[in-house]
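Appendix B, record 7
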Amino acid sequence: MNCRRLRRITLSVIPKHTNIIMRGDKSDSIFFLIDGRVKVYLTNDKKQEVILNYLAPGECFGTLSIFDSQPRAASVMSLTECKLFILSGETLLKILNQHPAVNLKIMNILANKVRNLTQKIENFALKGVYARVASTLVGLATIQDGMMVVEPRPTHKDIANMVGASREMVTRVMSEMALQGHINKGGNSSIINHDFEEDKKSVL
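Structure tokens (predicted):
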């Protein structure tokens, strides 16, 4: 990749709780998350929110509009201060034309998005609240020092918005998981017992 193309990649620092993308926007840039955490979400006319996903460093967003030239399908907000590499859709398409290996990487990203969406549809259609919360927590976790950690820990309201349940129901489910020893709170994080992955299967 030549230096001229690299100069078209912008490094941006985004403050906490900033809307990076708004649903309906007609921009086509792609964003690579270097540091921080963001949420992908939808809202309706009543300001009710559904959280589609949380993204961590190493992930990217904004890919769909590059290929279908349609407005943004969802909004993205920073949950912490974030560092992002931003690349215009035009520049990315030129890179894809000249570097087939990048094509395969983008195809893999899009395939994972479809796979995750399929899992979410299955969760909503076929699973109870306990199972949806369990699946969401495991999906949000990363391995840190050999432990499964969800950090920063989402609020019960955020989890409720992800699994399609009331905050009160999620609070009851989380309390039950804690009593069963599946999760432990520590600072701004939740630590998931490794046995939870096996125990979770019995309720899925």
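Remarks on this record: The chain has a mean pLDDT of 85. The first strand starts at residue 10 and ends at 14.
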